[in-house]
């Protein structure tokens, strides 16, 4: 099986430049970086005294929480679909 080609880009998140490497499209990787940047700025607006590492951890916690909520909703919808298909 052929290995997928990896894309490499530089993105800016919360004033710092990061190099991202992944098999997703560069557009997808830029969107991810943009969402992380937006979330960090949102949390900073609510807690301006946080240092950047605490801000990063809170951003990660919020993102994983959002992911788990969506995953649970997805699983419930899958179960409903199975029931409808009988």
TrEMBL record:
PANTHER family: CELL DIVISION PROTEIN ZAPA
Assembly, per entry: Homodimer. Interacts with FtsZ.
Full protein name: Cell division protein ZapA
Underlying gene: zapA
Keywords: Cell cycle, Cell division, Cytoplasm, Septation
Pfam families named among the record's database cross-references: ZapA
GO-annotated biological processes: cell division
Function: Activator of cell division through the inhibition of FtsZ GTPase activity, therefore promoting FtsZ assembly into bundles of protofilaments necessary for the formation of the division Z ring. It is recruited early at mid-cell but it is not essential for cell division.
Protein origin, superkingdom: Bacteria
UniProt subcellular location: Cytoplasm
Keyword RNA-binding set for record: no
HAMAP family reported in the protein's UniProt record: ZapA_type2
Keyword flag Cell division: yes
